[in-house]
Amino acid sequence: MFRYTEDQGKMLGVNGWVKNTRQGTVIGQVQGPRDKVEEMKHWLRYVGSPSSRIDRAEFTNQRDISKLEIRGFGTRY
Questions:
Q1: Does the pLDDT of residue 40 top 90, yes or no?
Q2: How do residues 7-29 score in pLDDT, each as one tens digit?
Q3: DSSP-derived 3-state class of residue 76
Q4: C-beta contacts of 67-74 below 8 A and 24+ residues apart
Q5: Neighbouring residues of 2: CB distance < 8 A, sequence distance ≥ 6
Q6: Domain spans, the chain
Q7: Structurally, what CATH architecture does the domain formed by 2-75 represent?
Q8: I need a labelling partner for 21 at 20 to 30 A (CA). Which of 27, 54, 67, 75 fits?
Q9: Would you state the pLDDT for residue 71?
Q10: Contact 9/30 with Cβ under 8 angstroms?
């Protein structure tokens, strides 16, 4: 399932990670140019992987950073 999310993040050139929670939700971080982060948020909110069901997408703790804190985009377990 996360392969699609990883592919999308890499295609957009953003950095970050995603992880399934025990509650059946997904958490993660996305870093990069503002326009690319917004594209990724749109994809997460409205598209997602083919087998996903998106009921709601909530983005919190958004802030500007001067330097990337994460390299690459991947899945955490």
A1: yes
A2: 999 999 999 999 989 998 899 99
A3: coil
A4: 68/15, 68/31, 68/32, 69/31, 70/15, 70/16, 70/17, 70/29, 70/31, 71/15, 72/10, 72/15, 73/6, 73/9, 73/10, 73/14, 73/15, 73/16, 73/17, 74/6, 74/17
A5: 18, 20, 49, 75
A6: 2-75
A7: 2-Layer Sandwich (3.30)
A8: 67
A9: 95
A10: yes
Tell me the whole-structure pTM to 2 decimals. Answer: 0.89
Please list, in sequence order, all residues whose beta carbon lies within 8 angstroms of the beta carbon of residue 6, skipping any fewer than 6 positions away. 18, 73, 74, 75
Q: Is 68 exposed, middle or buried (0-12, 13-18, 19+ CB in 10 A)?
A: exposed
Residue labelled with tokens 């870093």 = 31
